[in-house]
Amino acid sequence: MAEQTGGDPLFESHDPIFDRKELLHVGHVPDEDRIVGRDDEIQSVAAEVGAITRGDPPNNVMIYGKTGTGKSLISRHVATRAQDAAQGNDIDCGVLYVDCSEANTETRTTRQLALSLKEQTEYQQNIPLRGVGTMEYYQHIWGILEDCFDAVIVILDEIDKLDNSNILMQLSRAREARKTDAYIGVIGISNKVQYRETLDERIDSSFGHRELFFHPYDASQLREIMRNREDAFQPDVLEDGTIELCAALAAKKHGDARKAIEILKEAGELARRIGSETVSEDHIQQAQEVAEINRIEELTSGATVHAKLALYALASCIITGDRETYKTREVYERYVGICELVATDPITENGLYRQLKEQAFLGVIESEKTGGGRSQGSYLLHRLVTDPKHIVKAVRRDASLEDLPTYDRLRETSPSTGNRDTDLTSFS
Ligand SMILES: Nc1ncnc2c1ncn2[C@@H]1O[C@H](COP(=O)(O)OP(=O)(O)OP(=O)(O)O)[C@@H](O)[C@H]1O
Ligand SMILES: [Mg+2]
């Protein structure tokens, strides 16, 4: 495969670094024997939906966990295995997967469910793509389930992006309401733990469900995950210790398997670009920097200017100060000064507090309540989860904020350079 040249010398006949690069692609679904360190989670998900394979009613389950902890992978994996096992018992079990970050309304989700059910069967009726409402899509769903299936597993990924939760009620009541005889098991997935709190307010008891929590991977699990994809590279290209380093860096930062794999791939790209024959620890370090900035940029790109300024303010406190954590008040004071630099009206301290909370949510910062003693009350201390350098870089990528001081400019006022008293506003 890698040897095909097409005969044109403009294109290398052989990739010196990668052999099966597709193993490192973001959307790549690894084979069963490449799934590592999630045996308990696989068992737990199987225990909830597994009754389907015996012709019994399944449980619904909600899976929570940070990004890159294998939620989507494990859900699809277990659902497919359940489908095969059901087949072995002469039970027709469908698997439906919807990414609710794309299908973010009930109409879109039900349309996609109806269409993918139709795809899996001989259903003849036309399902219109537009011009019809949710009810009509439900009719098709119940119709197909009734005709063609004994059971179905519905995976609603990124379910927090759905604008309402009615679909959960519809799916869980379908049998009772005599819409269909098929058993329906829902696997809901979210990386927003807050969604868990709002879910109870949004739905009634008809959507009975269990909850599972997936934890970030530790270094040894990340190492295994990457080892199992080592054959993405040509033999002997990865230098000793590179996977270990990559795993250690990713585990320290976030325990996110997707990022760990991305770092490995980026390091390979880098090595190839500069004509190196091997991937070294140095390449991993550099790739990790790039990946981290991308991660921060992804996380902050949807944020408001004030959220970005809030992050920048905290980063600037850390860079110019001598501590890792700062109170809301301190961040606010810095933030007000920074607003002046970019000629923006500051929001209130409480508004800033809410912005910081939102960022804590996204995993960019960590906020910890500290008791200040009985008379002082408690206050929040904020710290960055990432290198402040990355925050400064990511925030300055916003065209309206590119005039903010660079990391190096901020460093000039840090205590280690003995220049602490320089007023931040003197950069303007
Ligand atoms: N246990 C594992 N073994 C092998 N590869 C894994 C494992 N867990 C995750 N991966 C890989 O890491 C990437 C991220 O996993 P996945 O998409 O399942 O994460 P997620 O928890 O759904 O994250 P998000 O909340 O961002 O959607 C995928 O490419 C997946 O193949
Ligand atoms: Mg996912």
Automatic annotation (TrEMBL):
Belongs to the CDC6/cdc18 family. PANTHER family: CELL DIVISION CONTROL PROTEIN 6-RELATED, ORC1-TYPE DNA REPLICATION PROTEIN. This is ORC1-type DNA replication protein. InterPro entries: AAA+_ATPase, AAA_16, Cdc6_C, Cdc6_lid, ORC1/CDC6, Orc1/Cdc6_arc, P-loop_NTPase, WH-like_DNA-bd_sf. The keyword Ribosomal protein does not apply. Residues 413-428 have a biased composition (Polar residues). It comes from the Archaea. Residues 406-428 are annotated as: Disordered. NCBIfam families: orc1/cdc6 family replication initiation protein. Keywords: ATP-binding, DNA replication, Nucleotide-binding. CDD domains: AAA (cd00009), Cdc6_C (cd08768). Residues 57-218 form the AAA+ ATPase domain. Pfam families: AAA_16, Cdc6_lid, WHD_Cdc6. ATP binds at residues 69-73, 217, 229. Gene3D superfamilies: 1.10.8.60, P-loop containing nucleotide triphosphate hydrolases (3.40.50.300), Winged helix-like DNA-binding domain superfamily/Winged helix DNA-binding domain (1.10.10.10).
